[in-house]
Please model this.
Amino acid sequence: MIAKPHTLLAKCLLALCFFLCFSLSTQAQVEPDTVKRKPALPTGPPGTEKPVTTPKPQPQPKPQTQPTPPAPQPEVKQEAEPEQPLEFIDKLYFGGSIGLQFGSYTNISLLPILSYKITPKFGIGAGPVYHFIKDGDFTLNNYGGRGFAQVEVIEVGGGAVMAHAEVESLSREYLVEIQPYIFETRRKTLVMPMLGVGYRQRITEKASFDIMLLYNTNDDPVNPYSNPVIRAGINLPFRK
Model:
Protein backbone atom coordinates (compact mmCIF):
# COMPACT_ATOMS: atom_id res chain seq x y z
CA MET A 1 0.00 0.00 0.00
CA ILE A 2 1.38 3.39 -0.91
CA ALA A 3 0.98 6.08 1.88
CA LYS A 4 -0.70 9.30 1.15
CA PRO A 5 1.48 12.38 0.71
CA HIS A 6 -0.15 14.38 3.54
CA THR A 7 0.24 11.46 5.92
CA LEU A 8 3.96 11.19 5.17
CA LEU A 9 4.42 14.93 5.73
CA ALA A 10 2.77 14.75 9.08
CA LYS A 11 5.09 11.98 10.25
CA CYS A 12 8.12 13.97 9.14
CA LEU A 13 7.01 17.02 11.11
CA LEU A 14 6.37 14.92 14.16
CA ALA A 15 9.87 13.41 13.99
CA LEU A 16 11.41 16.86 13.56
CA CYS A 17 9.63 18.22 16.65
CA PHE A 18 10.75 15.26 18.68
CA PHE A 19 14.36 15.86 17.63
CA LEU A 20 14.25 19.55 18.55
CA CYS A 21 12.76 18.85 21.99
CA PHE A 22 15.47 16.32 22.71
CA SER A 23 18.21 18.78 21.65
CA LEU A 24 16.86 21.60 23.86
CA SER A 25 16.57 19.28 26.84
CA THR A 26 20.19 18.23 26.45
CA GLN A 27 21.46 21.81 26.24
CA ALA A 28 19.48 22.74 29.38
CA GLN A 29 21.23 20.01 31.30
CA VAL A 30 24.74 21.15 30.31
CA GLU A 31 24.15 24.91 30.71
CA PRO A 32 26.98 26.35 32.84
CA ASP A 33 26.32 28.09 36.20
CA THR A 34 27.84 31.26 34.84
CA VAL A 35 24.73 32.04 32.76
CA LYS A 36 23.14 35.22 34.08
CA ARG A 37 19.62 34.78 35.34
CA LYS A 38 16.99 37.44 35.54
CA PRO A 39 16.36 38.39 39.14
CA ALA A 40 13.02 37.27 40.48
CA LEU A 41 10.56 40.04 40.95
CA PRO A 42 8.74 40.42 44.27
CA THR A 43 5.37 38.78 44.22
CA GLY A 44 3.94 40.08 47.54
CA PRO A 45 1.98 43.30 48.11
CA PRO A 46 3.94 46.58 48.13
CA GLY A 47 5.63 47.53 51.39
CA THR A 48 6.16 43.95 52.55
CA GLU A 49 9.45 43.43 50.84
CA LYS A 50 12.36 42.71 53.20
CA PRO A 51 15.19 45.12 52.58
CA VAL A 52 18.38 43.58 51.51
CA THR A 53 21.00 44.43 54.15
CA THR A 54 24.64 43.99 53.71
CA PRO A 55 26.16 42.49 56.92
CA LYS A 56 28.47 44.93 58.63
CA PRO A 57 31.93 43.70 59.41
CA GLN A 58 32.25 42.85 63.10
CA PRO A 59 35.14 44.58 64.87
CA GLN A 60 37.84 42.20 65.80
CA PRO A 61 38.61 42.20 69.57
CA LYS A 62 41.89 43.83 70.35
CA PRO A 63 44.33 41.62 72.13
CA GLN A 64 44.48 42.52 75.81
CA THR A 65 47.89 43.52 76.98
CA GLN A 66 48.97 43.04 80.55
CA PRO A 67 49.83 46.37 82.21
CA THR A 68 53.49 46.78 82.87
CA PRO A 69 54.07 47.12 86.61
CA PRO A 70 55.76 50.39 87.55
CA ALA A 71 59.42 50.18 88.18
CA PRO A 72 60.19 50.20 91.90
CA GLN A 73 61.24 53.63 93.02
CA PRO A 74 64.22 53.89 95.32
CA GLU A 75 63.11 54.50 98.88
CA VAL A 76 63.76 58.06 99.85
CA LYS A 77 64.57 58.46 103.51
CA GLN A 78 63.05 61.55 104.98
CA GLU A 79 65.56 63.41 106.97
CA ALA A 80 64.39 64.19 110.48
CA GLU A 81 63.81 67.85 111.01
CA PRO A 82 66.46 69.28 113.28
CA GLU A 83 65.18 70.05 116.74
CA GLN A 84 64.78 73.70 117.42
CA PRO A 85 67.08 74.87 120.22
CA LEU A 86 65.24 75.61 123.43
CA GLU A 87 64.98 79.19 124.55
CA PHE A 88 66.44 80.27 127.86
CA ILE A 89 63.06 80.33 129.60
CA ASP A 90 62.34 76.76 128.47
CA LYS A 91 65.28 75.57 130.58
CA LEU A 92 64.21 77.36 133.74
CA TYR A 93 62.41 75.59 136.58
CA PHE A 94 61.05 76.69 139.93
CA GLY A 95 59.91 74.76 142.97
CA GLY A 96 61.53 73.61 146.16
CA SER A 97 60.35 72.10 149.42
CA ILE A 98 58.57 73.00 152.63
CA GLY A 99 59.12 71.45 156.04
CA LEU A 100 56.49 71.68 158.78
CA GLN A 101 56.66 70.51 162.38
CA PHE A 102 54.25 71.65 165.09
CA GLY A 103 53.94 71.10 168.82
CA SER A 104 55.99 72.19 171.80
CA TYR A 105 58.82 72.46 169.29
CA THR A 106 57.77 74.19 166.07
CA ASN A 107 59.90 74.21 162.97
CA ILE A 108 58.84 75.71 159.63
CA SER A 109 61.39 75.36 156.85
CA LEU A 110 61.16 77.08 153.46
CA LEU A 111 63.59 76.06 150.71
CA PRO A 112 62.46 77.51 147.36
CA ILE A 113 64.71 76.98 144.36
CA LEU A 114 65.30 78.29 140.87
CA SER A 115 67.08 75.80 138.62
CA TYR A 116 68.46 75.75 135.09
CA LYS A 117 68.90 72.65 132.94
CA ILE A 118 72.18 72.80 131.08
CA THR A 119 71.34 69.49 129.38
CA PRO A 120 68.19 67.35 129.62
CA LYS A 121 69.87 65.31 132.40
CA PHE A 122 72.13 67.83 134.12
CA GLY A 123 71.03 70.95 135.93
CA ILE A 124 72.14 73.49 138.48
CA GLY A 125 70.16 75.70 140.85
CA ALA A 126 70.11 77.96 143.84
CA GLY A 127 67.69 79.30 146.38
CA PRO A 128 67.22 80.88 149.79
CA VAL A 129 66.83 78.95 153.03
CA TYR A 130 64.71 80.01 155.97
CA HIS A 131 63.88 78.23 159.25
CA PHE A 132 61.42 79.49 161.81
CA ILE A 133 61.84 77.74 165.17
CA LYS A 134 59.84 78.16 168.34
CA ASP A 135 61.19 76.28 171.35
CA GLY A 136 59.22 77.04 174.50
CA ASP A 137 59.44 80.77 175.06
CA PHE A 138 62.23 81.25 172.55
CA THR A 139 61.83 82.12 168.89
CA LEU A 140 64.76 81.52 166.54
CA ASN A 141 65.33 82.44 162.90
CA ASN A 142 67.85 80.82 160.59
CA TYR A 143 68.43 82.15 157.09
CA GLY A 144 70.88 81.70 154.30
CA GLY A 145 71.17 80.25 150.84
CA ARG A 146 72.31 77.19 148.92
CA GLY A 147 73.54 76.13 145.51
CA PHE A 148 73.35 72.65 144.05
CA ALA A 149 73.98 70.46 141.05
CA GLN A 150 72.04 67.38 139.96
CA VAL A 151 72.62 64.76 137.30
CA GLU A 152 70.23 61.98 136.27
CA VAL A 153 72.22 58.76 136.28
CA ILE A 154 69.80 56.04 135.15
CA GLU A 155 66.16 55.82 134.08
CA VAL A 156 64.02 53.70 136.40
CA GLY A 157 60.25 53.11 136.29
CA GLY A 158 59.12 56.32 134.64
CA GLY A 159 61.65 58.36 136.60
CA ALA A 160 65.37 58.62 137.17
CA VAL A 161 67.92 57.98 139.89
CA MET A 162 70.09 61.06 140.31
CA ALA A 163 73.18 62.19 142.15
CA HIS A 164 72.97 65.40 144.15
CA ALA A 165 75.58 67.73 145.60
CA GLU A 166 75.02 71.07 147.31
CA VAL A 167 76.57 73.64 149.58
CA GLU A 168 74.42 75.49 152.09
CA SER A 169 75.48 78.62 153.93
CA LEU A 170 73.27 79.22 156.96
CA SER A 171 73.24 81.91 159.62
CA ARG A 172 72.26 79.78 162.55
CA GLU A 173 70.62 81.20 165.66
CA TYR A 174 70.84 78.98 168.69
CA LEU A 175 70.49 78.95 172.48
CA VAL A 176 73.31 78.91 175.02
CA GLU A 177 72.73 78.18 178.69
CA ILE A 178 74.80 80.77 180.54
CA GLN A 179 73.37 79.92 183.99
CA PRO A 180 71.15 77.12 185.17
CA TYR A 181 67.85 77.57 183.34
CA ILE A 182 69.02 80.86 181.93
CA PHE A 183 69.58 80.98 178.15
CA GLU A 184 70.63 83.54 175.65
CA THR A 185 70.59 83.48 171.85
CA ARG A 186 73.70 83.53 169.73
CA ARG A 187 74.30 83.39 165.99
CA LYS A 188 76.86 81.57 163.90
CA THR A 189 77.35 81.10 160.16
CA LEU A 190 77.80 77.54 159.01
CA VAL A 191 78.91 76.21 155.62
CA MET A 192 77.51 72.72 155.10
CA PRO A 193 78.46 70.62 152.06
CA MET A 194 75.93 67.83 151.43
CA LEU A 195 76.18 64.81 149.15
CA GLY A 196 73.65 62.13 148.35
CA VAL A 197 71.31 60.43 145.93
CA GLY A 198 67.70 60.92 145.00
CA TYR A 199 64.86 59.74 142.87
CA ARG A 200 62.99 61.92 140.38
CA GLN A 201 59.46 60.85 139.54
CA ARG A 202 58.12 62.54 136.41
CA ILE A 203 54.66 64.08 136.78
CA THR A 204 54.45 65.42 133.22
CA GLU A 205 56.95 65.69 130.39
CA LYS A 206 58.80 68.42 132.30
CA ALA A 207 57.42 68.59 135.84
CA SER A 208 58.76 66.18 138.45
CA PHE A 209 58.73 65.27 142.14
CA ASP A 210 62.08 64.72 143.85
CA ILE A 211 63.02 62.96 147.05
CA MET A 212 66.64 62.99 148.27
CA LEU A 213 68.75 61.34 150.95
CA LEU A 214 71.76 63.55 151.80
CA TYR A 215 74.71 63.39 154.13
CA ASN A 216 75.85 66.57 155.89
CA THR A 217 79.65 66.64 156.10
CA ASN A 218 79.73 69.50 158.66
CA ASP A 219 79.82 68.05 162.18
CA ASP A 220 79.66 71.38 164.07
CA PRO A 221 77.70 70.98 167.34
CA VAL A 222 75.31 73.78 166.39
CA ASN A 223 74.53 72.17 163.04
CA PRO A 224 70.74 72.17 162.67
CA TYR A 225 70.66 69.02 160.51
CA SER A 226 71.05 65.48 161.76
CA ASN A 227 72.22 62.82 159.32
CA PRO A 228 70.77 61.64 157.06
CA VAL A 229 69.07 64.76 155.76
CA ILE A 230 65.85 63.92 153.92
CA ARG A 231 64.42 66.45 151.49
CA ALA A 232 61.47 66.29 149.15
CA GLY A 233 60.45 68.87 146.61
CA ILE A 234 58.86 69.61 143.28
CA ASN A 235 60.15 71.05 140.00
CA LEU A 236 57.87 72.96 137.64
CA PRO A 237 58.80 74.48 134.27
CA PHE A 238 58.34 78.21 133.68
CA ARG A 239 56.85 77.43 130.27
CA LYS A 240 55.22 74.18 129.22
Remarks:
- The two ends are 159 Å apart (CA to CA).
- Residues 5-29 form the longest helix (25 residues).
- Helices lie at 5-29.
- The chain is about 10% helix and 50% strand.
